[in-house]
Amino acid sequence: MDSNLSQFKSVSPRPKVIIFTSILHLAVLLVFLPHTFSWSAVGVAVFLHWITIGLGISFGFHRLAAHRSLQTPKWLEYFLILCGTLALQGGVLGWVGYHRLHHLYSDRQGDPHNSNQGFWWSHINWLMHSVPMRTELSRFTKDIANDSFYRFCHRYYVELQIALAVILYFLGGWSFVIWGIFVRLFVGLHSTMFVNSACHMLGYRTHDSQDQSTNCWWVALLTFGEGWHNNHHAFQYSARHGLQWWEIDMTWITIRLLQFLRLATNVKTIDQK
Ligand SMILES: [Zn+2]
Ligand SMILES: [Zn+2]
Fold this sequence. Notes:
There is one protein chain. The protein has helices at about 1-10, 15-25, 40-65, 75-85, 90-105, 120-125, 150-155, 155-195, 215-225, 230-235, 250-260. The chain is an all-alpha fold. It has one domain. The longest helix has about 40 residues, at about 155-195. The radius of gyration is 18 Å and the shape is globular. The structure holds zinc ion (ZN) (2 copies). One zinc ion binds next to helix 10.
């Protein structure tokens, strides 16, 4: 563990990510400017949080692309990957690569956000450093790396966010931009990061999953079901994360609906690998 710790402490910072993250956190303070609040702007933020984190990150990036827990028609897969790209959590190839590494080495050396490095490391500091396994990511994304749509989203995720901001500006002025971009990105980023930090430290464990993953109800609420993370580590292939009736999993409900409409097939669950 000690050698692991020193390895991480010697990693170099990523100035661009640090500057971007700082600007985002400062930009959220714009909500305190007069005349920037409106309920329609809050509605836009909530709607886009569902689109980008619920459909995009939870469904698209995580359960569909990273784990291949189900299949959808290509047009729907690409729509979900575009939604996840608009969460501005880096390119899809990097996101999937880091996540597959996390499962391979959960809470051990090689896990990019190893929770043994402390809360802040697993929450956001790992992103702001050039972790050693960054150079190995391409080995873990060979199944999607040659797909031209994935490559497009991976390459242009910043430009796509700017395009969304311009659309919001023309629809509702700065109020829509502040709530629909800055506040929504801030909430979406920390919600997702809580899965890596809080869901490896707080909450309860139902399964002995050979790591420190936990189930955390408030993270599940923020992330459309991703907070049932101990269940997920125990059954990584399963498209369903909330396993008890009270473990509400909005992404699973969405998948069931699409299954009913025959738009989701080969859906894996805990008893059906
Ligand atoms: Zn996962
Ligand atoms: Zn985890």
